[in-house]
Amino acid sequence: MSRAFEYFGGVPQECLYDNMKTVILRRNGYGRGKHQFNALFEDFAKHCGFAIKLCKPYRAKTKGKVEKFNHYLRYNFHNGLKVKLSMKNYQLNIENANAEVLKWLDDTANKRIHQTTLQIPMELYRSNPTCAHDLNLM
């Protein structure tokens, strides 16, 4: 996440997460709407200055926002890179994926017209300066 914040040049006011154990241990663990978060992740969120927002269980509207990007990443970036590397007799690994992902973000993902907003993601992000604050990653 720190690298994502660096890439965007700031930290959003809130981040949306699926209900994974690295983020949340128990929904409503301290009462209705008072969730028991993973302590390390909660410290990270406080340190960076963003609020943790959770997808509602069994609610496709919010879960889809998280899952749709994973699908796009897999079928537009991951599979294409895997084929490209295999044609050169290379294996896909974390090092070459990380080396290629910034180029893909800059040249493809953030220059396309988004299907929901009908806008180019980076232009939309840059036009809304209130959506992020300065990095506090040290």
Describe what this molecule looks like in 3D.
It is a single chain. The chain has helices at 2-8, 39-48, 60-87, 94-109, 121-126; strands at residues 11-12, 14-17, 24-26, 36-37, 51-54, 132-133. The mean pLDDT is 86. With 138 residues, the chain is α+β, with helices and mostly antiparallel strands. Helices cover 49% and strands 12% of the residues. The longest helix has 28 residues, at 60-87. It has five helices and six strands, in the order H-E-E-E-E-H-E-H-H-H-E.
**SSE string:** HEEEEHEHHHE
Kindly state the number of beta strands: 6
Instruction: Let me know the largest β-sheet.
Output: 2 strands, antiparallel
- Estimate what percentage of residues fall within beta strands: 5-15%
Q: Can you tell me the residue ranges where pLDDT is under 50 for at least 5 consecutive residues?
A: none
C-alpha Rg, in Å? 17 Å
Sequence of strands across the biggest β-sheet: 1-6
What's the rounded overall pLDDT mean?
86
Briefly note the structural class of the backbone: alpha+beta
The separation of the N and C termini measures: 13 Å
Keywords:
single chain, 6 strands, 5 helices, two-stranded parallel sheet, alpha+beta
List the helices and strands and how they pair.
Elements (H helix, E strand, L loop, with lengths): L1 H7 L2 E2 L1 E4 L6 E3 L9 E2 L1 H10 L2 E4 L5 H28 L6 H16 L11 H6 L5 E2 L5
Parallel strand pairs: 2-5
Antiparallel strand pairs: 1-6, 3-4
In short:
The chain has 138 residues and is an alpha+beta fold. The protein contains five helices and six strands; from the N terminus they run H-E-E-E-E-H-E-H-H-H-E.
